Amino acid sequence: MIEGPNISGIAALIGDPARANMLTALMSGKALTASELALEGGVMAPTASSHLQKLVAGGLITVRKQGRHKYYTLAEDDIAELLERLMGVAARTGQMRVRTGPKDPALRRARACYGHLAGNMGVQMLEAMLRDGMVAGHAGALEIMPLGLEKMRALGVEIEGLKLPVCKPCLDWSERKNHLGGQLGAAVFKRLIELGWMRRRPDSRVVAFSAEGLRQFEIHFPKDGKIL
Amino acid sequence: MIEGPNISGIAALIGDPARANMLTALMSGKALTASELALEGGVMAPTASSHLQKLVAGGLITVRKQGRHKYYTLAEDDIAELLERLMGVAARTGQMRVRTGPKDPALRRARACYGHLAGNMGVQMLEAMLRDGMVAGHAGALEIMPLGLEKMRALGVEIEGLKLPVCKPCLDWSERKNHLGGQLGAAVFKRLIELGWMRRRPDSRVVAFSAEGLRQFEIHFPKDGKIL
DNA sequence: AGTATAGTTTCACTAAGATCGAACTATGAT
DNA sequence: ATCATAGTTCGATCTTAGTGAAACTATACT
Q1: CA nearest A123 in B: which residue?
Q2: Taking 90 as the threshold, does the pLDDT of residue B228 lie above it?
Q3: Which residue of A55, A211, B62, B217 lies most exposed, with the fewest beta carbons within 10 A?
């Protein structure tokens, strides 16, 4: 009869529009305050407070108090992966938003996904890394290869002190392919911003490439027909 | 501000206990009738009817009418994967059911996951297949190798006419590792039952191995220390 | 034809929970 | 000390959606 874990509780938490919007905002990987999340959720402060308590109690997000602010983040990687997967199903079944924002194409092109690069560019990057043998896949897990380590060092990516699993695939809702996730994904993301190749749009998950950044990106992670 | 697909609709559909139980029941891969699903959901027929309509409208399940019965199944593979992932999060955050059923250990050991073998045994099988080079992983996708084809034929698995992707990994909520999914996973599952190595428990996702089946399984998909 | 079963529709009831104004606490700034 | 801002608690209101009894349609069996 009734078997296995109780999924309805978790799903119900995500099932409220205000909470779903808050969680989606947290997918950017940035820690957000209660007020910011109230804005994202489209509700007043008391309502947001109540929602946030429920999300914390449900283990979906965690809080860190800093001065008079409270910073919220997604609790674990698996939450981000779950949300990304939900977006995949929602996109496939045509449950896009009523008013499609102008940022939608930009969002599909490049965006932050819980601290790593997602969208068309993110998928292209992982595909290039696989093609060049920088990483290799095993049963849905990803492993970094010596060539990858070398390349990452050359790019100046901080790879020391990363926790296992260093890299893992993350299914992309807009591309329906994997992009690079895990600690390595986050480290690369950080480095690409440091290098000035791309920049986060404020208050958005959208990531914008500079002209030079795009050029460099295409050299290091070419679309196909690897020449390097 | 508000970006990306609208996840709250899908999540809300799964967020109701009755609907969640129905969906969990459908994870067995069997097509179930409205009455059976009413029983699984713990609600009366009219209520179930209403729920099923919503699930169909939301694209989570599909109906097939046959005589005076209506058979419901999960709409797509990605729904099953989403549910399995939800179970993973639910299990991690300790949202197990209030009254843990006696079948819980059996469920963790071997169960049907939308038509393929999941649980400890399922994970063991995929790991053995990877170790022996029967399948290989690429960026979260799985590919069958010549050796795998040969072995599958030897076992009598029906591998002709499978649609791509033939096999793919599916994250297991109880093991937090991947098991073999996709068309190949379903074909192997079917064959193992045909061979009498295992049998489905009625009205449950639990799969029980026979003594001989277990022996054979351990020979073909050994835990580790491949000898074959 | 008559009866049984599968599933749906209608409807009224109920309960859960989302919402926010107002008052409150806590921290920081001047 | 005083004021401003961040966040919470309380309480009242309101909406939404789940629920099943009763009556209905549709298919199947005999």
Answers
A1: B139
A2: no
A3: A211
